[in-house]
Write a structure and sequence with these properties.
Length: 476
């Protein structure tokens, strides 16, 4: 039977190198039976998923020959190499690619959610966009991407860096729709509890770049396009080490199996036809007269998926094995309401702790996916992972040796600067001592102040990946 190693407090210098920036604080808070192992596993998994480490394992330059997996491009055959992209992991992806290609890059522009020290690159510019709501800054940056690609022709190689969040960050509304209207549409869908797949189906059909339309432009110009993708779609299979291009659906560079009618039906399903912007409804009504998003492979476009959601689970499994602990993956497709998901995971943990079923402690459970916060009125500050973690804590109140690290893997959970939380059976009592009402915080969707008040907040900044939510549960 596995046994976790005892806590090893990190010194300040070591902590600076860890993905979780407040590791020491979290390790010295709460239940000592679970904090050390949970934090070591979470740090291990996040470090393994960083695209700055993964891209060089896939992409290398030898003289003029660019190797991506088993495919090669002779850069001597191209007049220009252009780099574009968008996503919450774009900072790290751009840094990794620039280290490989350097001055071979003619121009580059990648749209990201936040900028941090070290993001000033020599050949690729990083610009800010909006997430989860598209904004004017993102629209202007997207227009600059389109201008950059406007001169593409045969003899150009376009490398795109795409990660989760790109559909909001790279936004160019279809003609007649404003950024404000697109943002309002996103807000309506999120508030109604639509899944990310449903939200993206609508976004693709009110956009001039999403749903594969960006790749369609490049392909039509005669240029070649090489896409490096971090895929955050629930339901994908594990990637492992990619060697060959694949058919990919979604985002600005993939094929799109959805239609204008699908987008209309989603608005109808969530009873949003009466409140959606008129410009959006008019555009979707005209769908049969408009050009659909691309459905068939585009000439000259190669897609390499670097990571998928199950890879987050695989990284957590490796981390648990490094702790010499038995580990069980519950799912890589956890969806639904965040609060309910926290209650479910807590129920499984209690069953293991109290009855040794379905697994014998000590053990680790892993669940990845993308849960959502369903708003039913005014909301406070928080995010899905924070809500899941606080709900979990409420259900294991007073139970020693049970804890969770609930992580939004890209580093920002909802509209907050937190990446999630680490909670355990001591969290409710510490909340009471701090005069924090957990139930009220959950009801108001105001989990960020509650978690911060007791020191259970998890802080990472940019992580270099974006594979939705990763939940690591440890039962000692």
């Amino acid at each position: 039977m596995g046994q976790a190693r005892p806590p090893e407090p990190a010194d300040d210098k070591e902590e600076d190198m860890l993905p979780i920036k407040n590791t020491s604080m979290l390790q010295n808070t709460g239940d000592p039976l679970v904090r050390g192992p949970l934090l070591r596993m979470a740090n291990h998994a996040l470090a393994a998923l960083n695209s700055e480490r993964l891209i060089p394992s896939l992409v290398r330059l030898e003289g003029d020959i660019l190797h991506v997996g088993d495919t090669v491009w002779n850069l001597a055959d191209y007049r220009r190499v252009l780099v574009v992209g968008a996503g919450k992991a774009g900072n790290h992806m751009a840094r990794a690619l620039e280290r490989i290609l350097g001055a071979r890059i003619s121009r580059g522009l990648v749209i990201v959610k936040q900028l941090e020290p070290g993001d000033e690159l020599a050949h690729i510019e990083l610009a800010l966009g909006g997430h989860p709501y598209p904004n004017e800054s993102g629209r202007q940056a997207t227009q600059r991407v389109l201008d950059l690609l406007g001169g593409c022709a045969s003899g150009d190689l376009v490398v795109s860096l795409i990660s989760g969040g790109s559909s909001a960050l790279m936004n160019c509304p279809a003609e007649g729709i404003s950024v404000e209207e697109e943002s309002r549409l996103t807000e309506l869908l999120l508030t109604a509890g639509a899944s990310i797949l449903e939200i993206n189906t609508v976004r693709r059909h009110v956009s001039a770049v999403n749903g594969g339309r960006l790749a369609q432009r490049v392909s039509a110009s005669g240029a070649q396009m090489l896409n490096l993708i971090l895929s955050d779609r629930v339901g994908d299979t594990a990637v492992g080490t990619p060697r060959v291009p694949v058919v990919y659906t979604g985002t600005q560079i993939g094929l799109d199996p959805t239609t204008f009618l699908d987008a209309w039906n989603i608005l109808e399903r969530y009873r949003l036809l009466a409140v959606a912007p008129d410009s959006v409804l008019e555009h979707l009504r005209r769908g049969p007269q408009l050009t659909e998003t691309p459905k068939s492979p585009l000439p000259g476009v190669s897609n390499f998926v670097i990571q998928g959601l199950p890879d987050a689970c695989a990284a957590a499994v490796d981390a648990a094995r490094a702790e010499r602990l038995p580990v069980h993956v519950l799912t890589s497709g956890l969806e639904g309401d965040s609060r309910q998901a926290g209650m479910f995971l807590a129920a499984v943990a209690r069953e293991i702790r109290d009855r040794g079923e379905p697994f014998v402690p000590p053990c680790v459970l892993v669940a990845a996916g993308e849960t959502t916060v369903r708003l039913n009125g005014p909301a406070g500050s928080g995010g899905p992972s924070q809500e899941l973690a606080l709900s979990f804590a409420r259900e294991v109140a007073g139970l020693a040796g049970v804890g969770i690290a609930a992580i939004e893997t890209e580093g920002t959970d909802g509209p907050t600067a937190l990446a999630g939380a680490v909670t355990d059976g001591t969290t409710p009592e510490r909340c009471r001592a701090a005069r924090v009402d957990i139930l009220a915080a959950l009801d108001r969707h105001d989990c960020c102040p509650a978690l911060t008040a007791v020191g259970d907040q998890l802080e990472t900044g940019n992580t270099g990946t974006n594979l939705c939510d990763l939940n690591i549960i440890y039962i000692a």
